[in-house]
Design brief:
183 residues, seven-stranded mixed beta sheet, Aminopeptidase, 9 strands, 6 helices, alpha+beta, globular
Length: 183
């Protein structure tokens, strides 16, 4: 049975890392990267444990295997992953609906990934539905940053309800900052 839940065990976090590694941009072909999407950041078990202690992430399991995940990254995670400091600094200066983003209660989607054999079955949308179900009482919106060349991810986020609020270029890529308002 396939079911969405929150991360609960070290095994869940280890399985996230396995799935992350299998879908990292450096580990897949250029053709697969363009057609299937990719993840760009690598975490380690210590970082995932710290993120989990702040707010569990959403996973989808079949039997006891994680087949999809969507990492919950509270603003407090800013200190945990130095590579993301430029993104958080950028968010400090952005607005949402005419008000500074900092006036809103939000968190960042740290990364989303669905195992290859489970794509096209609605799991991506289910990850976000579960995030909304769990966290909408605490937060007004969810923000994430997507490489603009990751066309599959951009389209999937738009389908869920995300809107682009900013695009920018850094030394790694061109990025779209997108938000999904839960109000």
């Amino acid at each position: 049975m396939i079911q969405a839940s929150l991360t609960n065990t070290t095994q869940d976090l280890q399985q996230i890392l396995r799935l992350q590694e299998e879908n990292h941009a450096r580990n897949i072909s250029e053709t697969e990267l363009r057609s299937q999407g990719f993840v760009t950041l690598r975490h380690d078990i210590k970082i995932l444990e710290q993120m989990h202690n702040l707010a569990p992430s959403v996973i989808i399991k079949e039997d006891n295997n994680v087949v999809a995940y969507a990492l919950t990254m509270l603003q407090e995670c800013r200190q945990l992953i130095p590579d993301l400091e430029p993104m958080f600094a950028l968010l400090d200066g952005l607005s949402w609906n005419g008000k500074p983003l900092s006036d809103h209660s939000f968190y960042v989607m740290g990364q989303v990934c669905v195992a290859k054999e489970y794509r096209g079955q609605g799991l991506f949308d289910e990850l976000y539905r579960h995030h909304k179900k769990i966290y909408q009482r605490q937060f007004d919106l969810i923000i994430t940053e997507i490489a603009t060349r990751n066309h599959r991810s951009i389209r999937a986020h738009e389908r869920v309800g995300f809107k682009t609020i900013h695009t920018h270029l850094d030394e790694l890529d061109e990025w779209a900052v997108v938000g999904w308002d839960w109000n």
